[in-house]
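Try it yourself: sequence plus 2'-deoxycytidine-5'-monophosphate, in.
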Amino acid sequence: MINKVIAIDGPAGVGKSALGKRLANHFGYTFLSTGQMYRILGLKVLAQKIDPKDYEKVVAVALKIDWDFKPNKNNVLEIYADGKKVGSEIFSEEVGGVASKVSSNKDARRVITNKQRELCKKKNIVMEGRDIGTVVCPEAEVKIFLDASAEERAKRRFKQLKEDGKSADFEKILESVCARDRRDTQRTVAPLRQAEDCIYIDTTNINLEQVEQKVLEIIEKNDR
Ligand code: DC
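Structure, out:
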């Protein structure tokens, strides 16, 4: 049996997780950020000094990962890989870059996609990523595609780094956002694209509260 699934897809840095957590909270669903699974794979590939383009070796790493998912008090699924809870090290630019590269590996994707499908069958869930509405769960009740210009996403990332007291170079951030967009949209397996029946929202000029409001209005209208 498939439970209720809300799929959120879109490019890097568009606010999918922030929106997903709010929707999960609103509906009492659990929440999973699927990019973290690709980041964990990327981290393991990095740690083992494997070339992200070495197809067979990356598949072997993916096949060996023992996944577990436990909800925290906010119903966000925390990911455990080989019994170890995932830490903030997966959010570095370096790991993000490797994650983006290994995520074009078809067989590694299959392993991770199957895990995500199992989760869709277990619980009502909000899942965010790049291919949730198109590949992981095309039968999802609600499919949202969030978008924003690359400049706006780089601006948000720059602001966040500054607020965290970290050094940031806007041009470099923009370059990295564009490179990730290219890889995510141009890969042959499960590229980032909109599902035909998605709710498309451009968030370039609206804030998170307004995005959530818009989505809730559309969901309620469709429910009537
Ligand atoms: O959302 P994120 O930035 O944490 O994702 C990291 C990388 O993982 C991203 O560049 C592409 C990949 N990814 C994917 O291919 N499919 C998903 N469902 C989620 C992420």
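One thing you can check immediately is this: The chain has a mean pLDDT of 94.
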